[in-house]
């Protein structure tokens, strides 16, 4: 009976880098998207209540957050097509 050892087959450093990068990207993009949703809902609520300047700031937060998510998606596509 021969035992197969995975250590020589698997590059553990590269595997750890992929898992760590995916975790950071997943949590980061999800958090930024959540900020975009928060900005959108607060902007609508504040505008309805007549608080224009505060609603504008939340709308700006929404726009920046969604631009950040779009930038992350574009960056991911560029990285995948470069490899």
Summarize the entry for a quick read:
The protein has 83 residues and is mainly α. The chain contains 2 helices and no strands. The protein has a domain at 33-83.
Explain how this protein is built:
The protein has 83 residues and is mostly helical. The protein has a domain of 51 residues. Helices cover 82% and strands 0% of the residues. The chain has two helices and no strands. Helix 1 runs antiparallel to helix 2. The mean pLDDT is 90.
How are the elements arranged and paired?
Layout: H1 12-48, H2 52-82
Task: Give short descriptive properties of this protein.
83 residues; mainly alpha
DSSP strand tally: 0
Tell me the strand percentage band: under 5%
Structural class: mainly alpha
Low-confidence stretches: none
């Amino acid at each position: 009976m021969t035992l197969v050892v995975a250590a020589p087959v698997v590059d553990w450093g590269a595997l750890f880098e992929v898992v760590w990068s995916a975790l950071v990207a997943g949590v980061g993009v999800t958090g930024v998207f959540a900020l975009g949703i928060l900005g959108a809902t607060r902007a609508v609520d504040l505008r309805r209540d007549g608080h224009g300047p505060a609603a504008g700031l939340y709308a700006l937060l929404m726009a920046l957050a969604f631009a950040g998510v779009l930038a992350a998606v574009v960056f991911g596509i560029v990285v995948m097509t470069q490899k």
